[in-house]
Write a structure and sequence with these properties.
- This protein is mainly α and about 150 residues long.
- Helix content is about 70%, strand content about 0%.
- Helix 2 runs antiparallel to helix 3 and helix 3 packs antiparallel against helix 6.
- The model has no long low-confidence stretch (mean pLDDT about 80).
Length: about 150
Amino acid sequence: MLAHCANPAAPDGAEVREAVLATRTARVAGREALARAAHEPVRHRGLSRAAADGAEAALARLGRVTMLMEAHLPDRDAAPLPAAAALTEALRHATERGAEDIRERRVPRRDEVHEARVTEDEVPDAVVRNRVRMLGEALGDLSDALEEG
């Protein structure tokens, strides 16, 4: 979705919808995994219940932000926002690295995304800046929940 802000004329409507659906699918899969884990007859070695609940809430927030971003995509004739391209790349790297971190039972780092935040000069659209802020906060909430785990 941020990639669409970087290049509004690009034909990526299907990618945006896929991102929304992938977010929903991941959240459901996580919820199902937690439910299965709760019924395992072995000693618990994973996340605490509070950490799992916090992670689920952060993922729900990510889903809401994703839907908000989809609902407010810039028109095809809007001016490109180069800063959104840098943030898109930072988010891609952070989510790939974060998924690996979670699989390896490490807390995902958020420094790359934090450093790529956008300013009013770079992104004059307050709605886009607000969604980026919300996205960063949700990612921070996920890291915080897993850190407490």
